[in-house]
Specification:
This is ABC transporter, ATP-binding protein. This protein is α/β, with parallel strands linked by helices and about 240 residues long. The protein contains eight helices and ten strands. A hairpin with a 2-residue loop joins strand 4 and strand 5.
Length: about 240
């Protein structure tokens, strides 16, 4: 379970997140939606512990706080730390050595499924292949919470389908998953709920099934409607 209470984040006197509070239970996959610049990536980085929130902000995973939560979440947003001469196989070895919960069999299955050449150097990988490798590394750990920041960015339609299939098949059923994306229509069938941010605040946290049944809307229609209403009827 992932719980956020009164989360504020300010950088260089600019308020990025304003008092976010929400709870995502186990067995749920949640879409994190919002325009560019609303704080989606910042929220991911705060949850993962890469940056620190303002005082009196709480982030808990399975009831744990602070440095203890890092062992209970998986988040791989970049390969900037890797050497350009490293091969895919080297990156896999780093994860095997660095994370006791790394599931080598799952990683090998994902590499095969996504057709990632493990002999290629990182510098030679296409943007789409790097995205697929990041996803594979993230979901190859056996942990409680998985954070996926724009996993479909920079990839073509076929690659997006591969990534979505991998999320459906390989993510542990009991996991808590938070995935940010602009591909709302494509992600709708994968997620249980949606968190919508606007201007650094929580605009909505709603069940996708409830949106369909009670509102009679798709997730994309609901998202658009909320934004228009919050703008005073202006698109």
């Amino acid at each position: 379970m992932l719980q956020v209470n009164n989360l504020h984040y300010t950088k260089s006197r600019h308020v990025i997140l304003r008092g976010l509070s929400f709870k995502i239970p186990s067995h749920r996959t949640v879409a994190l939606l919002g325009e560019n610049g609303v704080g989606k990536t910042t929220l991911m980085r705060l949850i993962s512990g890469l940056i620190e929130p303002n005082p009196h902000s709480d982030i808990m995973i399975d009831g744990k706080m602070g440095a203890k939560i890092k062992a209970n979440l998986s988040y791989v947003s970049t390969l900037d730390w890797a050497n350009n001469y490293d091969r895919v196989s080297d990156i896999v070895d780093y994860f095997k050595m660095g994370y006791p919960d790394f599931n080598e069999q799952r990683m090998e299955e994902l590499i095969k499924f996504m057709r990632i050449d493990r002999t290629k150097r990182i510098a030679k990988l296409s943007t789409g292949t790097i995205e697929k490798l990041l996803i594979a590394l993230t979901i190859s750990r056996d942990t409680s919470v998985y954070l996926l920041d724009e996993p479909f960015g920079g990839v073509d339609v076929l690659a997006r389908k591969k990534i979505m299939q991998s999320l459906l098949h390989w993510l542990p059923e009991e996991a808590t998953v938070l995935v940010s994306t602009h591909y709302i229509q494509e992600i709708e069938s994968l997620v249980d709920d949606a968190i919508i941010l606007k201007d650094g605040r929580l605009l909505a946290y709603e069940s996708v099934e409830k949106i369909r049944k009670e509102e009679g809307l798709s997730l994309e229609q609901y998202y658009t409607q909320l934004y228009i209403e919050d703008n005073g009827g202006r698109e």
